[in-house]
Amino acid sequence: MSDQKKILNDLKTAVETWNPKLAESATKAAIEAKIDLKTIVQDGLGKGMEAIGERFDKAEIYLPQVVAASKTMEVGLGILAPLMQGSNNVMRGTVVMGTVQGDIHEIGKNVCCAMLRGAGYKVFDLGPDVSPETFVEAGAEHGAQILGGSALMTTTMQVQGAMVVAVKEAKAPFKVIVGGAPVTQKWCDEIKADGYSENGAEIVELVNKLTKKG
Question: What radius of gyration, in Å, describes the C-alpha atoms of the chain?
Fold first, then answer.
């Protein structure tokens, strides 16, 4: 196995086994070996997160492990951060996520944030109970391409519709994606959102599709 292959494999293993120490040493080794930043993020750390997503979908692991893997990945991204300054092509795009106003459920959203980070997106998590205006403001502040609103109660689904309206009123360029237990593709079409994701594995595919350049 070549040095580069071994380092990328170590990065993947670090995330899969939520081992922050290995993530730190492997990331430093990758920098020393002058491996391309995009390769480190997508073929090393990101591959580990992909494997975590597959295991989560099969119910082989649960949310605490997904969060631990995401935190391990962030150790690597933290070390890479100074090198990424001004290098926009390393991260695929920026997504602002949150649970909509009136709703405090975060599990599904947290999984989606972890999966998107694993796929190489910069994710700003606004937490629970987020108003449509706050989504739009955060999107503008962080230069996001996508706003993701999660609703876990039928009573708060209406706020997802208000998000779409707020983006239109602000004449903002953001695409709005929605998800959550009671949410369906039919609802997404009804409120004219740009996309619907049923789970953490699907969200990466959806965001990839919506952020494709050209």
Answer: 17
Contact 76, 24 (CB under 8 A): yes
The amino acid at residue 139 is G
- DSSP reduced 3-state for 27: helix
Mean pLDDT over 97-101 rounds to 97
CATH topology of domain 94-211: Rossmann fold (3.40.50)
Residue with tokens 């599709």: 209
Say yes or no to pLDDT of 64 above 60. yes
Average pLDDT over all residues of the chain = 90
Q: Is 29 exposed, middle or buried (0-12, 13-18, 19+ CB in 10 A)?
A: middle
Question: What are 32's two structure tokens?
Answer: 């020393």
CA dihedral (198, 204, 209, 211) positive or negative: positive
CATH 1.10.1240.10 domain range(s) in the chain: 3-84
What is the CB neighbour count within 10 angstroms for residue 122?
19
pTM to 2 decimals?
0.71
Dig out the tokens for 189 from the structure. 């079409």
- CATH class of the domain comprising 3-84: mainly alpha
Signed CA dihedral, 119, 124, 128, 133: sign only: negative
pLDDT in tens, 125-158: 999 999 999 999 999 999 999 999 999 999 999 9
For Cα atoms 84, 87, 90, give the angle at the middle one, nearest 5 degrees: 75
- Provide mean pLDDT across the span 92-116: 89
Query: For residues 72, 112, 117 and 42, what is the CA-based torsion angle, rounded to 10 degrees?
Result: 100
